[in-house]
Amino acid sequence: MGMSKKSIGKKAAAGVLVAVVLAAGIAAGVKIAGSLDFSGEEYHLKRTPLVENYEAGSDEEEGVFQGTVVGEDGKPVEGAWVAVGIKGEAKPFVKMETDEKGAYSWKVEDEEEQYYLVFQKEDCITVVMEPDEKDSTPYNLQDAVVLLDKEEDKDAVYPVSVKGLAVLAKEMGEDQDIKLEEDGWSAEEEQSLPGLEGAQVDIRRGINCTDGDAEVSLKIGDDGTASADLAKGTYTAVITKEGFNPVTFILYAKDEEPEITVPCVERSAGGWQIVLTWEGEGEPPLDLDSMAVCKGRLISSLNRGDEAHGRYLFDSYGKTGCEVIEMPEEAKDYQYYVMDYNRVIEGKSSSLEDSGAAVWVYHNGNLKERYQLPTDETQPIWNPFAVKDGSLVTAQAGLDSIEGVEGWKADKVLSRMNSKDLNAGVIVSDGEWLYFTNQFDENKLYYIKKDGTGMGKLCDDPTGGHSRKILDGSWIYYCIEGENGRGKAVYRIKTDGSGREQVKTLNEGQWLSLLGKADGRLFVWNQDKIGGEISYIDDNGIETSLGTGLSNQISLVGHSLYYLNEAGYGGTAKGLHCRNLKTGEDNLIIPDVDWFQFYIRDGYFYHDEGLSLFRMQLGKEPEFIASGQEARIGSFIMYEDWIFYYDDGSVYRTNLDGTDKICIKNTVGQYEIIDGELYTDRGKFAPIKVCGLNGENERDLFDVLPYKKDAAAQAYYQFLCENESNGDPDWPSYSRFASLDVNGDGVNELFYSINEYSMQTDRLYSFEDDMVLAKTLADGYKYGGTVVYEEDVKMLTAIYRYGEMGSPDEVTLYSTENVYPRILDSGYRYSIGWDDDTLESQENAARFDAILADHWVGKQSVNWVENTEENRKTYILGGQSTGYGDVMEAWQ
Description:
By secondary structure, the protein is mainly β.
């Protein structure tokens, strides 16, 4: 094991706890060679040569072992022996004595050699220490070694307890229902990180000792802890669990040693993880918080930050919780703070000295450093380190001096008041698969990968075209569609298609929709004659009603449910209410509001009042954000630092304060944001479009044309069957039809010809969501027509001939590039024997002649076929075109 000049003797950062050694290399499985008795009893140092402590200069480049020795009371120990030995040799070859500050220092003689150290003092337990191997610091000694007093009772044992915590590479916490009280933030539940159940804890004597058989091996139980009784002394412990990086740390078996809390980071974690824990014996402040701050950026809660720059993975409230901040590998210039937040914002005098705060810093899942609050800390803010250019440094800076975060005190309060994600949407995603209503298969529940592959049916239940679904773990909750097209019952099914079961049903005349699910509560809104009712169903199936006359808009903040009372039934007050879901306490927050939708973000209530979108803080006037153009704002979605809203068929995006408004996409019917992409559709048989949040890289989720063709064919076929001519002059049914794609959308349109006995009108039908009467071609005229191409736009030319004497022949040219034909030009001419004696009739006759010349003569006419079962099957169900004939021949 070689040594590096630059790393030997490197001082640990101020505040390193004597109870922990940072042994990332050892924890990863590096074995230390040599045979040592880590009990220390075989080392008798009286005959070992004594040398003077080495005085290293400020520009020292040679390797140096240096540190301090303290007693159980934390005070320096003067006159303790610190001996150095070579591994494989039985006795140390040199020793030093600690000075009045408890310090020692020895210059390494051979940088290629492997060493160990022995610490000894009369009436103290001898300790052996192996230098600690780390990724960039092969030899980093324990900064302060504790010598424990010898125990007179040889059989005495002391309990030690280890609590393992799992730091996952994802957000683990969620905002709770909290109140700011006189002594800090009060939380209804104290939450901590998940326990490391089943992890192995191996304990050996000495400092940094990981070689050989363990003296004690333990398993962490389902309560997240492991305990043992040990003889008084200093021990090395290693926690290991599959999927997590091992952690090596020091245990002291002695009087009144508190439980040590050890976070273990998931192997897949990258970048930096900073974990705040508490291990004090006294009562820590109720509201102890951690923050990472750089110029213009504040990471202070789950609702502050993002994966690109840094974010909270866990934000707890209460005395025993932990907080976890994650920052990417390239994070620069972040100052890290621990504070008694309530005291800070109120300007009260306090210190953190009795809190027992400890901070564990991991880099790419490996333990990098551990800091314990200094016992002489007298301020309510502790700034132990900074992350600067990918390294830990002690370049502290005052929080109020950092540019761009001057409002952090008020911001911290606001950041804790945010709506939870209720996981409801017309389309829901698990990150890889989408679950949606397939409107092309009777609104059944389907799944598809986000890349458009792997589509399949999950169940046969009709779910309603735009009804919300909820994805909760492996369960999907959905509404079954009733006869009125609205939800009549709630079911759930697993994503593998198993476990289908009913959750809620309604009486006749009622209908419902899903609002979301959080904290084991499924929120449902249903409506009948007395107005809307909000209720929630817990995981035991117990349903609780919040009352009637309520809007279907809710927002959940911790255990506080904000909802709109629209009617004030039963003596209740109209307005925005807040219901504590644990205590049942209900309060009117803002009276007489008329909001269509609202969302809570950073302490602001974002809401639309029909034509305009606003935000407001409680007790303050609303701030204008945006307004609709020709119609009301239909809906809005808050995503990251943007608001997306719907206005008159278009989706717009604006900043949270209403600045930088842009139009993202036009011709939109429904829209959602899923996994950072915008999903839109504009009708039943229009494809679901997916694009970026700037409207870029648009694609179809899947091809809908085959479904549209099939639906059109079935509709046309049924219609033709029901209207087949039977020769009855009083029954104006269709004796002939033509099937052509006249607008280029890939779906055939239909021309219907009234039977020969009727004076009714020939008609052109198209297909959108259903059959559409696109145009009544003429009343009392016989139809002839052709499809022509002009400047790549398909046109339909229709000619009308007079059926009785006295009226002119007419011709009209239509554009059929859309579903509904648009008149381009028209004209008329009187039959032979009638004079065009007016200017108007002469102008119309000229247009008539021009249309005939340009768009009729020499063109192809619609080819008609008889309305028979054989032709219906061939042309309609078979999807064939009836084709064209010679227009002049047909006209004659």
